[in-house]
């Protein structure tokens, strides 16, 4: 990393009270978000939740109706996009077809009137960073989709931006390339040390590379925490059900626990009010006993989905079905039609007490 990169990397981004409406539709409803210097924060949520709008307001591509944005302690709320010093990578690669890879990467430097020798040198440094020096003199149509996206990333980093913005950059790629490029983006982000906001609807993507994940819903951030905390200790039923698979099991809350099919489970929030509730239980907290017994947790295996080292087994309990994620070696012993008894691990669970109809 050169001295300039070290001095430019790692600024704090702070968004406070951001609001944005499109006519009667509220896209952002008072978003507060601080991205620490050098941190990668992923915004995750369903379509229309406001994650891309948040990124576009930070980029200066749209104006906020209310709220403020500061970068490195400087208020940029009303600055045009051209003066915000952001590097942006979008789902569409947007490479110039008549330019070589090297020329595409150097384009932003040319606009800044950087001397040709320096911009060529910088372009090659960035292509080395993304492992594409051998393709420097090729044209975009001669590259694969993953290679084109790496060129777009190199171009965004070439101008040495204060902040890197990634908007669904991998969604147009196939699964294998997406996983490889995801890891490469994380490696480069850590190497450069640049503050990064990553927008995605892919849970696996967000959980795999982010320092913190912000789960959005209806223009608000419902939870902002580490991937481990978001998954294992979701703050709301929406987060629990959106991030990962969740079994919804009817139960009753009393004395700081929820009783589900005869099994008392601790609560994430012991202060949850007593009464009927839906317990949100992760599939990996459910295991299968080797011998079937009897009772409310005994049922019939109706399907088993192979996931590699683990398998997801669907068990029919008569009045509901439940998913168990277990080692494949154990799942093989319980083919479809087998009678099994389930055990629910006593992990703290979240409950929904007003489930939608």
Provide an overview of this structure.
The protein is an alpha+beta fold. The protein is 27% helix and 34% strand. It has ten helices and 20 strands. It has helices spanning 3-8, 51-59, 101-111, 116-129, 145-158, 175-192, 203-209, 227-232, 237-242, 328-331, and strands at residues 13-22, 25-35, 40-44, 66-71, 74-75, 86-90, 163-167, 195-200, 212-217, 220-225, 247-254, 257-260, 263-266, 275-281, 286-288, 298-306, 310-316, 321-327, 339-344, 350-352. It has a six-stranded mixed beta sheet, with helices on both faces. Strands 13-12-11-14-20 form a five-stranded antiparallel beta sheet. The chain has a five-stranded antiparallel beta sheet with strand order 15-19-16-17-18. Helix 3 crosses helix 4 (116-129), helix 3 packs parallel to helix 5 (145-158) and helix 4 packs across helix 5 (145-158). The longest helix has 18 residues, at 175-192. The N and C termini lie far apart (55 Å). The model is unreliable at 1-8 (pLDDT under 50).
Distance between the termini: 55 Å
Shape, principal axes of CA atoms: globular
Q: What value does the Rg take, in angstroms?
A: 24 Å
Biggest pleated sheet: 6 strands, mixed
Mean residue pLDDT? 90
| Main sheet: strand order | 6-7-8-3-9-10
Helix share, percent: 25-40%
Low-confidence runs of at least 5 consecutive residues: 1-8
Secondary-structure-derived class: alpha+beta
Record field, number of beta strands: 20
